[in-house]
Amino acid sequence: MEAAGLMEPKPVARARRDRGYYPTDLVLLVYVFLAAALLLVSPREIPGKALLTAGYVLGAIAIAALRFFPRTRPALWRGVRDLYPLAALPIFYGTLCLLNRLVTVNYYDEIVVQWEQAIFGFQPSQELWHRVPNVVLSEYLHLSYLCYLPLIPAVPVYLYLTRQYEGFRTLTTSVLTVFVFCYVAFILFPVQGPFHHFGPIDPSLKPGIIAYAVDQVVKNNSSLGTAFPSSHVAVVVTIWMASRPYLGRLSWIVLAAAVGIFGGTVYGGFHYAVDTLAGLFVGLLFGWLGPKLYTRLQSFLKSPGDDPA
Predict the structure, then answer these.
(1) Could you give the percent of the chain with pLDDT greater than 90?
(2) What is the pTM of this model?
(3) Residue 227 is part of which domain span?
(4) How many domains, in total, are found in the chain?
């Protein structure tokens, strides 16, 4: 029998084991730290720089401080802790149009346009819709493009609600990693995309209710400089690959959306074909690498005796 005073009370021991980071915390912390460092060291001025810098610095501190808080108790906190990285992504996306101005005053669309011309001999984003003028196809591709927005939270939340916690954390780690890669690329090599570089395709030449709605979403909600690589394609391919072992037959729905998004990015004039191909490569890379990274980080972070997720 252990001497009195040497044996730690079980509730206290359990609480200590419950503290620490998840892999998603570390991935997000790396990005927020890099963004905060860029804001602090860059001599360039952007609108609201002081406030943005304070936000990223405080964000880095807050994420770092999660090390000292319980991960799973109480239940409401567990939900917040698990889902906050997904909720933070739109906020970070919205600031990219400012962060990329800290690196350069240029957009590199002309370089990508030259790649397009050299590879294809024409501009697919400007001519594909004209070469295949089918309203039904157009509406399907635009609907698929629009489905990207709800798809990002829908698949992880489905895994979470069905208590597939390992699948949920594998997927969210993979998704966050591919987003961080794309966000860094957007900051270092900002490309507006054909929708903003050439202008939107004339609605009268691209008929359809869904096509019009998607054009309005892109027009009013884009963060300039976030075209290369296509995060739409990269993220949806990563979601499909990382979630396929857990979704069963439902993975075919994600695959159908991925195929539609792949075609819709170019057909709708939202991305250059080169953006889309680069996004496919990045998605395949992180769809394979993300689960492996999760396993490595989880093995590093999880101490013996940790409560199961």
Answers:
(1) 77
(2) 0.91
(3) 10-301
(4) 1
